[in-house]
């Protein structure tokens, strides 16, 4: 696949104007406060796994609207507390099985993997979900991005971003977690969710968004090849008069707007042959970061798989130097 977007030199200088609503901060502050008021106690129980060298726990925490959301918690044997990585999952995936992601815990971190409400049925080789989304929406075009898209208060991603922030807050209350050493990460959709969590929570001390989706959403909608972009274009091809409302909703969900509130250290990645998380959309968010300590890992000949394990090794080294 050839490069899908601007040249690398152009990307380093790409700073588009992305609409940030005047009430953006108030919208998210009130959203979070409403769900905190409905919060229930986090429940942690032993996970049934064959793992013997790592501790594995099944977690249920209180997300948007007080909804129960599942997560896995893995950590090294011993009491801790440990520096902690909270991970969010890519589009269509769920938390999977407790033993699917062992790298962070085997590297000395506590690791929380959030289930993605309503998702977890798109990956044949793993990633089943265990959390329903009990909130309905008006007609949508498959997938998740178009659910409730006519109004920011009903958007699916309002619920998902809230879940993410409240998991960080729940993590900080766990005995095995060092609340002063919490990082967030994720790939694709998970990277976009990590950016939102880092922009909304002061508990996040480092962020590692990997080829993040959900950035510069108007350009993404116009150029990205498939997945959520195709679903939303399909929606707009039917609901022809909805474009102004849809773009307004997207402005409350855009990773570029969250990036302008991120002050923690950030290691981001981009792949120049990615036709899903378009490179220009990733750089648009990167350039808005307020972080004094930020890095972009560029993979010129990769697509949406990004840097794979090569990048994860870099993430571990980078995070150890900051947490």
From TrEMBL:
<feature type="region of interest" description="Disordered">
    <location>
        <begin position="120"/>
        <end position="144"/>
    </location>
</feature>
<dbReference type="Pfam" id="PF05448">
    <property type="entry name" value="AXE1"/>
</dbReference>
<feature type="binding site">
    <location>
        <position position="91"/>
    </location>
    <ligand>
        <name>substrate</name>
    </ligand>
</feature>
<dbReference type="InterPro" id="IPR008391">
    <property type="entry name" value="AXE1_dom"/>
</dbReference>
<feature type="active site" description="Charge relay system">
    <location>
        <position position="274"/>
    </location>
</feature>
<feature type="active site" description="Charge relay system">
    <location>
        <position position="304"/>
    </location>
</feature>
<feature type="active site" description="Nucleophile">
    <location>
        <position position="188"/>
    </location>
</feature>
<feature type="domain" description="Acetyl xylan esterase">
    <location>
        <begin position="1"/>
        <end position="320"/>
    </location>
</feature>
<dbReference type="GO" id="GO:0005976">
    <property type="term" value="P:polysaccharide metabolic process"/>
</dbReference>
<dbReference type="InterPro" id="IPR039069">
    <property type="entry name" value="CE7"/>
</dbReference>
<dbReference type="GO" id="GO:0052689">
    <property type="term" value="F:carboxylic ester hydrolase activity"/>
</dbReference>
<dbReference type="InterPro" id="IPR029058">
    <property type="entry name" value="AB_hydrolase_fold"/>
</dbReference>
<protein>
    <submittedName>
        <fullName>Acetylxylan esterase</fullName>
    </submittedName>
</protein>
